[in-house]
Amino acid sequence: MDVDAGHGAALGGALPTQPGELPLARRLRSLLTWPTTETDPVTQLVRSHRAIHAGAEPSVLRRAYTIAENMHRGQFRKSGEPYITHPLAVAQICADLGMDSTTLVAALLHDTVEDTRYTLQALAEDFGHEVAHLVDGVTKFDKAFYGKAAEAETIRKMIIAAGKDVRVLIIKLADRLHNMRTLGVRSAASRQRIARATQEVLVPLCDRLGIQTLKRELDDVVLLHLEPDEHVRIARHVHDRPGWDAYLEEVVSRAKAALRRSRVDAEVTPRPRHLYSIWKDTVAGGHGTPFDLPRIAVVVDGPATDCYAALGAVHGIWRPIAGRFKDFIASPKNNLYRSLHTSVCGPQDRTVEVLIRTEEMHRSAEYGIAAQFRFPRAGGSATARAEQLDWLRRVLDWEQDAADPAQFLESLRCDLAEAQIQVFADGRQVVLPAGATPVDLAYELGTERGDRCLAARINGRLAPLSSELDEGDVVEIFTETDAEDDSDADAASHGPRREWLGFVKSPHAQMQINRWFAEHTEPGISITDKVRLGRATIGLALRKHDRGLASDLPLLRLSEELGYPDLETLLVAVFDRVIEPDTVVRQLIDLVDHRQ
Ligand code: MN
Asked: Which residues are the active-site residues?
């Protein structure tokens, strides 16, 4: 029950009431079904699920629970609780998020293949391929078997699976959230390690997918484990500040009155910051005491233009603070977050922050990629959804070029850690890591463009290829094809310059430049390079079949079967085209599929 309360709080905030039962109706119903409520652990899950998806069929959830419970029976969490409490809690998090039945079924079963004798094949037969794909995507590689590489392999596999179905990542995030909530029983060292890994990869992932409601709780639980004293200090600060609620109440009611006078239909609510965000602002600003400004959210019931009317109404009663207005509606953040932000000089001359958005913007700000599951009928433009996955697609693109999972994980970490900027090129917005240069942009626009780029014009001015781009820059890239007429130089003499490696920022550009040099340094190409490129070639061919190379094991077996002395020799043979990559891949897939 405390798990529930915790999550409910995270999902709180200014969200309009969900379509669902009235509390009274719910209570009556629970009285009527009293015997099962007490004995059936799935009841709460089904209820939360049907509160959002009224037509959902509960039987498949019960079936999944029964199998999971059966399989995990006799296993226990570190806390001493039966293991099944974990998948059940993960499914509950997914249900509160508003995910569909398929996700909930997969969440209930997410650890069965990894930790029990239940096989992926049996799971596919019992629940279908969709569920099997989701479970497979979050199934870890065995550390005992794969050693150090297991972690990187696991993340790479998960990202590839998410490229096909993003629900994989949502289950993974819910899984991690529950593990983080229950981290208290672990040793200090493993708490630190897990919290740190969560902060490095999963929190930014959650942010990229725009799921703020999960991110807030992940943030806070990371803070709890990494900075327990700070967590206590901030929590205490938020808990006892006399007059805070009354002040916010006054702000809300005066804002409401102003909006009414301007004929803007809107909900106005206090919008408290979460602990981590207060802590971050406190530390960043070098404040001795926790730094937290009163904040309200205005959710307008109308089109985006109403947001500007609301802004006018707010600025009409309280003077805006210069330099604090941000229009994320006209230029959304790169995780598609849209809102107007302003700070005003509120009652008693205190600074108040105001967020203004439409209902649709509010939903996608809270639920991000999960919004399409929570509000299936609300529509939401398909292009917005596609854009939300842009980042994932980009990651998958350079995944093809990563030499091995460790490099991939390193690049992923790097990409997630970077702040991002948006620039304009070829008439569209392109997202790049902060500090990116025209060369990064050129590679983002296409491998050819990168390899052949010669010069750049930034905001109408020629600029060195090493210039750092700024948010909003308009950039033109010139390639040697554009300059073809005035040169009879052999095209092969061009290509990336080695010094580019000194200033490019994105993992994608780095990998592409390395790839070019590896390809163009024959005949002096080393065996190591051939091995690496042979492996990359196979990786690429596998991608055509929507498969990835999770580990070397199948390759190793294949090289034996084909009579090569070792794996390296096979990879060199692939590079030299002694054996066709497609042939290797076909046999590889055969081998893997028939082993299961
Ligand atoms: Mn798990």
From this structure: 114-115
